[in-house]
Design goal:
The complex is a heterodimer of chains A (775) and B (511). Chain A has 19 helices and 29 strands. Chain A has 775 residues and is of the alpha+beta class. Chain A folds into three domains: 147 residues, Aldehyde Oxidoreductase, domain 4; 188 residues, 2-Layer Sandwich (Aldehyde Oxidoreductase, domain 4); 338 residues, Aldehyde Oxidoreductase, domain 4 (2-Layer Sandwich), CATH 3.30.365.10. The mean pLDDT of chain A is 97. With 511 residues, chain B is an alpha+beta fold. Chain B folds into three domains: 197 residues, Beta-grasp domain (Ubiquitin-like (UB roll), Roll); 113 residues, Uridine Diphospho-n-acetylenolpyruvylglucosamine Reductase, domain 3, CATH 3.30.465; 113 residues, CO dehydrogenase flavoprotein, C-terminal domain (Enolase-like, domain 1), CATH 3.30.390.50. Chain B has 18 helices and 20 strands. In chain B, strands 2-1-5-3-4 form a five-stranded mixed β-sheet. A five-stranded antiparallel β-sheet of chain B has the order 10-11-16-12-13. In chain B, strands 6-7-9-8 form a four-stranded mixed β-sheet, covered by helices on one side. In chain B, a hairpin with a 2-residue loop joins strand 1 and strand 2. The relative contact order of chain B is 0.09. The model of chain B has no long low-confidence stretch (mean pLDDT 93). The chains are: A alpha+beta (775), B alpha+beta (511). At the A-B interface, helix 1, helix 3, strand 27, strand 28 and helix 17 of A face helix 2, helix 3, helix 4, helix 5 and helix 6 of B.
């Protein structure tokens, strides 16, 4: 049983708001990222030569000028790859270097290694590539029309939505566009490959998935997993963008290292990073809904078409999650959810915080808002009548019973604490008095399923050593991308041994320490690795107890670990004293730990079962002001109540909630990816791609973690995953903007609003609404 | 070809780092400060996030002696686009400079730890340096001042709230009784010389000893770099070397090197010319040296034209404004530079110089075509002259962009209109982002001049405005939005000019 020691005085135990384990290193510039590692002798720097065409046959590649450029040591193309020319982990359709066909602008064709970074990048621009252009499909709508799909379309059905819609008293149909999003981690993609004896390679990679790097590199260089070791101490942000994409970067560095025998580093500059690697999928969403007078959804059809890009990558699982999250917190008795995974000649879209879930939730929230405006009632009331029940109306479209529903409690609390109803009245009055500026408010819920939907990924390993001075080395398969995973897992181990957290060193993720680890993704990091580390610690603890009972002739129940000490019967000794004694008595002080998530099972062929161990909940109320002359908008206030179960570290979880929320606000407002008609991404740097800045975050930001909310499942100390769910709290901001636009007609008409709601999109929405009024 | 140089030419640059004078004889003039730190010194605490001055991960602080106020001026800049020799005569602070030798954290760092201000940590050194510059320049900033100080720093993890908290908390560690005068780092808000700590005073003495006087000339791998200390010398150098690239703030030229990998054979840096940065006021004009950083220009312009406050707060970010100059913004001739529309409507003129010859040209006549100006070969902008405000004119400028802070305008509009009994007696309207150059809306002006300033008049003017421009569609906005928004900004100006109760600005709303 995971019960915390009452009145524990250890530093950094479970539940403590302990600072991030690298906080001090971060603020002093002492934290080492991949590009900061001291460079090996004679290191070479790599750069990619990329396609200028969205879809074309390569007729010829002339690399003469590249090879002749100053400092250039080696150039490789597809034909120089001794192993498999693929880094796609699920489907083998992601060439490392394009062999004869290019399928997006920015697709790597060749790679250069040179003495300096500048030389490599300059040389990469000197190739003469001759193309024969092929017709390019650039967006999801065209792809659907041309039946261009990267994976088979899927349908999730429950009940009989067709009849339900036809029989319903009210019906609405529509279409809405939802833009993608660049991860915009501050540290760009990077890998450093160092040759080891016998052709082995050691890889430093900024990756959420060292194990996949290991396999991709081994396959590319024609070797096996045992020949490659991958390490990652930390990433400068990842957000899903470093789940599958780093394999490309590491494979290129590895191939050049193998060819030259020198260490090779490939660091993409910001523009290359944004052009070459994948982003959040953009969607076109069609809906058809039938509902009653109170807004209860009786039947609903969704058709999702997502732009997957040129390869499958993780698009299958991502679009599955879109389907799974089309319900958000709402009971859908009769639903048909269709999902098209469109193949386009654009960069292959990939994982990004929420992994398809946000897009599904965007769809249903949009529909719920439309229903409310059609019925001329407060959207919150329509949300409430559609919420899952506790004992009835509690089965998801994929047949999982929602047995931990707390959305009513969260929304009721937030509605009261945010003064939602009163503010709505006040805003309506204000809007009547103001012609140019309009305000809007919205409350939206979040319910997010926790677990990898691919069941086999829900496993983790850890490795714990105790040294004879009583200090602890902790390693696990998770990776640190800023989310505080290393801190939380260390807190678990500190709690188990009842020692201060500073006695524990968390070391870099390393494929030679913990093998076959899943990607740190799906918000699962603490759930999985916390449990694995706990089990490793408990194995050692069990041996220590056994030793103590023998050494001190007491029974096991009289050996108590607490507050940096071990009490053995009448006497108490420091933890490190016990370790010394145990060592002298030849006790093993090292152990692995392994965990797999219980209770989940899921049949993808029928889209049914229990894909999720549990759900994480939350809700947000946001208020905005817009300018009806320009579409400019500003977030004025947000109130958030979010469920982290019994938090392992409230300060870190709060950081995830706020950070995820603001990232979501960017997705739905200022972050616009813009391709020109030739398939060239023109927003590929912070000068053109605008993530939120400090002034976009309101001073009136009231964020709380739900108190007394232990996870009903036996997770690590009854905590809940928090990485992804808060992102979707930002739907409140989008709907507050939509509400403000509706304010132009005093709420009489429902505006059409695509995302992201940039000033231009908002102004367009207002103009369309006004046109409607004139008619 | 190397230019003819005066006898006292210097061949080395000197700057202060960690209290020591660093002297560099041979350095690549277009090597960035960031490359120097990371690759040459292995001081890897400073990060590269974008190499274009837009994310702030590379932020460092530069100190120089200034006369007004008499003291040490510390300013954050983007090291990723700052060329190494521009450090000549200055003091450089990086993230490694902050913590004490004892390991004790600087108040800024301590506050960031305690407020949980870092997650992935990659942007953190840049934030710490921007906060450090704030700490040294303001005693207790409010939220808007904090946002302004952080406008050039992007964080993707935290959502900023804990960093803003740290900006408030960092002053808590300072107690007047316990002020450790030996550490220059412990005095918040003060840059005035007589309030400096012992260590700061030592820095000032060292700075005086390395003052960048005379002409600096560096030659490296076929590249020439000149840094004259007088306008006369600048004019002479440019005449001898008319193809040289004039470098002032480098906030655009830096990108030619980091992004376009351009080889700049000859560069003339103007930052060492004190008279080139002067700002003066006469009875009729505000005269701004072309080399004055935007950060210095802003407060002066705001004093005479308070309605320009918002534009200048949203003009790039503090590190860019600290480096970038008004002359650079004008001479660079971008169609979307933010200063030009308003300067055009204010009737600004430029003093151009070529050798010993001067001429004055209206800014309105300066732009010929896309990135093409009236500057002749070997000629440069020496001064910007802005007439002091006429009392009867209403002046406004509005900027539209996807994000409020540090974004490039989709449309930037400026209006100056004078009335007599509600009849328009004088009107100047200019737009950026609507054409290949910043441009007057001539047809719109004509439609308004001499007419009633009323709803009907505005309707006419809006329709005329539509004939003034044929804007493009690009990643910032469609042509349709640009047209609509341009017209609506005229409407906003009309509403604002009536000075009624109608609120028209979300940027200021509620704060």
């Amino acid at each position: 049983m995971a019960v915390k020691i009452a009145n524990s005085t250890i530093r950094g135990g479970v539940g403590a708001s302990h600072p991030h384990d690298s906080a001090r290193l971060h603020v002093t510039g002492g934290a080492t990222y991949t590009d900061d590692i001291p460079e090996p002798r004679n290191i070479l720097h790599a750069a990619l030569g990329v396609s200028s065409q969205p879809h074309a046959r390569i007729i010829s590649i002339d690399l003469e000028a590249v090879l002749a450029a100053p400092g250039v040591v080696a150039v490789i193309t597809a034909e120089h790859i001794p192993g498999e020319n693929n880094y796609g982990a699920v489907v083998a359709d992601d060439p490392i270097l394009a062999p004869d066909l290019v399928q997006y602008v920015g697709q790597p064709i060749f790679a250069v290694a040179a003495a300096t970074v500048d030389q490599a990048r300059q040389a990469a621009g000197l190739a003469q590539v001759e193309y024969a252009a092929l017709p390019a499909i650039l967006d999801a709508e065209t792809a659907v029309r041309e039946k261009s799909f990267i994976l088979p379309s899927e349908t999730l059905r429950t009940g009989d939505s067709r009849s339900a819609i036809e029989l319903a008293p009210h019906r609405l149909q529509g279409k809405v566009n939802l833009g993608g999003q660049d991860q915009f981690y501050l540290e760009g993609q990077i890998a450093l490959a160092i040759p080891r004896e016998g052709g082995d390679l050691f890889i430093y990679s900024s990756t959420q998935h060292p194990g996949e790097i290991q396999h991709a590199v081994a396959h590319a260089i024609g070797r096996q997993a045992k020949d490659v070791v991958v390490e990652c101490r930390r990433m400068g942000g990842a957000f899903g963008g470093k789940e599958s994409q780093p394999a490309l970067i590491a494979a290129v560095a590895a191939l050049l290292a193998q060819k030259t025998g020198a260490a090779v580093k490939l660091r993409l500059d910001r523009d290359a990073d944004m052009i070459v690697t994948g982003k959040r999928h953009d969607f076109v969403i069609d809906y058809d809904v039938g509902f009653d007078d109170r807004g209860v959804i009786l039947g609903i059809n969704f058709c999702y078409a997502s732009r997957c890009g040129m390869s499958a990558d993780l698009s299958g699982a991502i679009n599955d999650r879109t389907m799974f999250h089309t319900d958000n917190a709402y009971f859908l008795s009769d639903a048909t959810i269709e999902s098209h995974r469109c193949k386009t000649h654009t960069v292959s879209n990939t994982a990004f915080r929420g992994f398809g879930g946000p897009q599904g939730m965007f769809g249903i929230e949009y529909v719920v808002d439309e229903i409310a405006r059609q019925l001329q009632v407060d959207p919150l009331d329509v949300r409430k009548v559609n919420f899952y029940g506790s004992d009835t109306r509690n089965v998801t479209p994929y047949k999982q019973i929602v047995d931990d529903n707390i959305i009513h409690e969260i929304v009721d609390k937030l509605e009261a604490s945010s003064d939602y109803r009163q503010r709505r009245v006040e805003i309506a009055q204000w809007n009547r008095e103001n012609d140019v500026l309009k305000r809007g408010i919205a409350l939206t819920p979040v319910k997010f399923g926790i677990s990898f939907t691919a069941t086999h990924l829900n496993q983790a390993g850890a490795l714990v050593h105790i040294y004879t001075d009583g200090t602890v080395h902790l390693n696990h398969g998770g990776t640190e991308m800023g989310q505080g995973l290393f801190t939380k897992v260390a807190q678990v181990v500190a709690e188990e041994f009842q020692i201060d957290i500073d006695q524990i060193k968390v070391t870099a993720s390393d494929t030679s320490k913990v093998p076959n680890a899943s990607a740190t993704a799906a918000s699962s990091g603490s759930d999985l690795n916390g449990k694995a580390a706990q089990r490793a610690a408990r194995k050692i603890k069990k041996r220590l107890v056994k030793f103590a009972t023998e050494h001190f002739s007491v029974s096991a129940k009289d050996v108590i670990f607490a507050n940096n000490k071990v009490t053995v019967g009448e006497q108490s000794l420091p933890f490190q004293e016990l370790i010394k004694l145990a060592y002298m008595a030849r006790t093993s002080l090292s152990s692995t730990g392994f965990y797999r998530t219980p209770r989940i099972n899921y049949d993808r062929s029928t889209f049914s079962g229990r894909p999720f161990f549990y759900f994480a909940y939350g809700a947000a109320v946001s208020e905005v002001v817009i300018d009806t002359l320009t579409g400019e908008n500003r977030l004025l206030r947000s109130d958030i109540l979010h469920d982290c179960g019994d938090s392992l570290n409230p300060a870190i979880d709060l950081g995830q909630v706020e950070g995820g929320f603001v990232q979501g606000v960017g997705w739905l407002t200022s972050e616009e990816l813009w391709w020109n008609q030739d398939g060239v991404l023109k927003t590929h740097a912070p000068s053109t791609y605008k993530i939120p800045t400090s002034s976009d975050v309101p001073d009136d930001l009231r964020v709380e973690l739900l108190a007394d909310s232990a996870n009903r499942e036996k997770t690590i100390y009854r905590s809940k995953a928090v990485g992804e769910p808060p992102l979707m709290l930002a739907l409140s901001v989008f709907h507050a903007i939509k509400d403000a636009v509706a304010g132009v007609t005093e709420g009489k008409r429902s505006p059409h609003l695509d995302a992201p709601a940039t000033p231009e999109t908002i102004l367009t929405s207002i103009e369309n609404l006004s046109v409607g009024l004139d008619q | 070809m190397a230019a003819k140089l005066p006898k006292d030419v210097r061949k080395t640059i000197r700057f202060i780092l960690d209290g020591e004078i660093v002297e560099l004889r041979n350095c690549d003039p277009t090597r960035t400060v960031l490359q120097y730190l990371r690759e040459d010194l292995q001081r890897v605490g400073t990060k590269e996030g974008c190499a274009e001055g837009d994310c702030g991960a590379c932020t460092v602080v530069i100190g120089e002696l200034v006369s007004v106020p008499d003291g040490l001026q510390l300013r954050a800049i983007n090291s990723c686009i700052q060329f190494l020799p521009t450090l000549d005569g200055k003091v450089l602070f990086t993230i490694e400079s902050l913590a004490a030798e004892s390991g004790e954290l600087h108040p800024v760092q301590q506050a960031m730890v305690e407020c949980h201000g870092s997650q992935c940590g990659f942007c953190t050194p840049g934030f710490v340096m921007s906060l450090f510059a704030l700490y040294k320049s303001a005693a207790h900033p409010d939220r808007r001042e904090i946002d302004n100080a952080l406008a050039g720093n992007l964080c993707r993890c935290t959502g900023y709230r804990p960093i803003v908290d740290a900006a408030r908390k960092m002053y808590d560690y300072h107690s007047t009784e316990n002020k450790d005068k030996s550490s220059w780092l412990s005095v918040p808000g003060s840059t005035v010389l007589d309030e400096l700590s012992v260590t700061e005073a030592q820095q000032v003495d060292k700075l005086r000893s390395i003052a960048a006087t005379g002409t600096l000339h560096l030659e490296f791998d076929g590249k020439q770099y000149y840094a004259p200390d007088s306008i006369e010398e600048l004019a002479a150098l440019l005449r001898q070397n008319p193809d040289a690239c004039i470098l002032s703030g480098g906030t655009d030229i830096g990108l030619w090197v980091t992004k376009q990998h351009r080889h700049l054979a000859s560069v003339i840096y103007t930052g060492n010319i004190q008279s080139f940065k002067q700002i003066s006021v006469s009875a009729s004009h505000l005269t701004i040296g072309a080399g004055a950083p935007i950060s210095d220009v802003m407060p002066m312009l705001s004093q005479y034209f308070p309605e320009l406050d918002e534009l200048f707060l949203r003009f790039a970010s503090p590190p860019i404004r600290n480096a970038g100059t008004l002359g650079g913004n004008i001479a660079n001739a971008s169609p979307i530079g933010d200063s030009m529309p308003v300067l055009i409507v204010l009737g600004a003129e430029l003093l151009l110089r070529s050798g010993d010859n001067n001429r004055v040209i209206a800014l309105d006549d300066f732009y010929l075509d896309y990135q093409k100006t009236a500057l002749a070969r070997g000629e440069f902008v020496q001064e910007v002259r802005i007439p002091l405000p006429a009392t009867d004119a209403t002046v406004r400028t509005y900027k539209l962009s996807k994000r409020f802070d540090q974004d490039i305008s989709a449309v930037c509009a400026a209006f100056s209109v004078a009335f007599n009994e509600n009849i328009v007696t004088n009107v100047r309207i200019a737009y950026g982002g609507m054409a290949a150059i910043p441009k007057r809306a001539v047809k719109c002006e004509l439609a308004l001049l001499g007419k009633q300033w009323d709803d009907a008049g505005i309707l006419e003017a809006v329709s005329a405005l539509d004939r003034d421009f044929a804007p493009l569609t690009d990643m910032r906005a469609s042509d349709g939005y640009r047209r609509n928004a341009a017209a609506n900004l005229l409407r906003r100006f009309y509403i604002d000019s009536k000075q009624g109760e109608t609120l028209t600005n979300v940027y200021h709303y509620g704060r």
